[in-house]
Amino acid sequence: MTSSIKSIIYLFHLLFLTTVFSQEFSITGKIIDENKQGIEGSEIVLLSEGNIVNSAITNFEGNFTLKNKPGVYSLRFYFVGTVIYQTDFNLDKNIDLGTLKSFDNSTQLREVEVTSKKRVIENQVDRTVFNVENSIRSTGTDGFELLKATPGVFISGNQIGIVGKSTVSVLIDDKIVNLSGNELINYLRGISSENIKNIEVITTPPAKYDAQGNSGLINIKLKKAPEDSWAVNLRNYYMQTSYPSYLGGVSFTFNKKKLSLFTDYIRQTGHDKYWENISNGFETENWEGRTNRKDTRDINRLAFSLDYKITEKASIGTKYIGLLDNPDTKDRNNTTVRDNASNAVTSIFLTNGSNKNDSSNHTLNVYYIQQLDTLGKKLTVDFDYFKYIDDQNRTFNTSEFTPENVQIGQSFIANNTSLQDILNYSGKIDVELPTKWATYGFGGKLSFIENKSNIAFYNLSNGTPILDINQTNDFDYAENTQSVYGNFKKSLGKKWQTQIGFRYENTIVEGTTTSLDVTQNQTNDFSYNQIFPTVYLSYTHNENHNFSVNYSKRIGRPIFWHLNPFKVYINSFTYAEGNPFLQPSFTDNYEINYNYKENLSFKIYYSNTIDGTAQLPIIQTNEGETILRYFRDNYADRSQFGGTISYYFDKFSWWESSNTLNGFNNVTTFIKDVPTEARNGFQYHFFTYNTFTLNKSKSLKAEVNFEFHSARREFYYSGTQYNKLDVGLRYSIKEKGLNFILLASDIFRSYQADFTSFVNNVSQLNNSYFDERKILVGVTYKFGNKKLTASQRESGNEEVQERLK
């Protein structure tokens, strides 16, 4: 252990000891309803100058206990998101408030709701909190739609992101959701907007979270469920792109005394279309290729969670997500070869391909939470299991023809199979120790990953499968990561706050390639370790002005599939190849933030990545045949310097608008000898999400969403600008639990760009479209006792999931 680590541990030890002799007083009492029955599950919040300093939950008899240092406070009681009681007092001794009767008339409720209304946007030392209960979208929609109203968050296609971040992970109640793309969106659509308390946007994750990925976090906090509640939520969506698709889902929630249950099942079927145009300009000829692909949607997903409260301070639970997917594809590629001098067609290549794909994804989380006192001290233990299997079987047939459509030679027919089997299991412990002087946190995690991949290539041109031993192998990869962290958070007077954290991760890697050609066998063993600091400093001048600065260090571990050294063929002259010697990349992130009131925010950021990985298209000639080879390596260092402006507009009761403008300059420096030049420059993005209430009852709403991406120069390519316009209507019959949805996406089919590059003295023009223009019609129906759904808890394999694709 280094001297610096010892010093850090010693510092935390001294800080912790100073709290032992701190003075604090208790607040006790009981809250009852109009029938003089104790109200169980009421959320109690203790506030000082409008800031939450402590909280608790009433027990089954309505009793509560809080402890805090002396001072003047407000005590506020919430039930189902509504304030049911409020009182102010001076805490200079132990206080027994006795029996408190909840408000029983609308006038009292309205008076307290006015005085207790939370700020729409709260800026904390390490995150921005969007209190969605004041949003137009907070009723009659779902978790996915609420993200559109969240400042700094963008929805682009099937991707959810934070402006200025390369990737993002979504959490629910501080637990990662192990889904991505359409599956994540479908999962969020199953969470009713009425059940969401707030959304936290964390651009610089604290030391508690894994250091993997230069990403931010979106943490969706759910409202606490009252006792004796159950509900069924049915949802059906029909979507029309180039092909139709259908999604049906049903969820059931139940909360009774100590038991909370949640289940959700979806079934999705249909197809998607993808097409791509590629033009490669060689010295003497030009290749003009067009690919049309039809992707199958055949998905079954089951989510299940069970939580049991052992005692008032101890609970245990489990969460399972299972996903079965068969995304089979059929594709057709037509490549025309032209002579540059005469522009005459010299030959045509036609490829037909079919890919059979079976994949499964199983995640299991078991947790235990022990509350250590009423001040929020707690111990959390998590065990996670993750199993992912992806089995692909691709057959393709490439034939060459003359301009007169006469076949030249024999067709090349091949079968390329691949199997990836990933097993991950991990355990972690987190301890939170809030005190009157500061808040401490520490913990550790052990993670074990086994990745088994194999690729086989068969030549079927002569009718008999012939195994190509040079393109067939088994690749086994094992990774063991141990990590520990410590975190310290403290208020420095009334206006300053700081948070400092350190996370240490040590990773041991072993990769083995086994081939029928023993000369290609290899073993690659290595290890690496790093300390990942996070530092935050926040200054609040008054309620209208807040400043903050923060810093973090992150790691980008290679995606598993990118480590496999063998080839995956697209056609007879195009293939992608992995690299078992890929190393992790490291990124330093800096941010300066300024927030004006609760609607306007500015951010300046800088990030620097060393040993960044990327995939380059490299042109090679083998025995007179031209091959397009996509190869991945640690090619470059990259830096970005930019700024973001976010404005949340809600001045009118009928219009809500979330707007973000982000611009940055990127600089790429190649650290290896590559046959291209870096393209650097400035680019910007603009996102606006608008919701309009069209009638007095607020049952009919419209939305207009628009995003714009400027032209860009980055890495080795340039891209043209592109944009997307979405519109929609929503109609809710709240008393019957019915919601009707009509959405149109990418109306002008403008969500596509042209990308150009120059590699190996070969120019390339690429244009692709993922069938973003679509119409969605949906209906959801919720029935039960009209109370909230039970809290959901997610598993913690986020750093593994992020490396699958």
UniProtKB/TrEMBL annotation:
Its main location: membrane. One of its GO terms (cellular component) is cell outer membrane. SUPFAM superfamilies: Carboxypeptidase regulatory domain-like (SSF49464), Porins (SSF56935). It comes from the Bacteria. Transmembrane segments: none annotated. Residues 371-781 form the Outer membrane protein beta-barrel domain. Keywords: Cell outer membrane, Membrane, Receptor. This is TonB-dependent receptor. It comes from Flavobacterium piscinae.
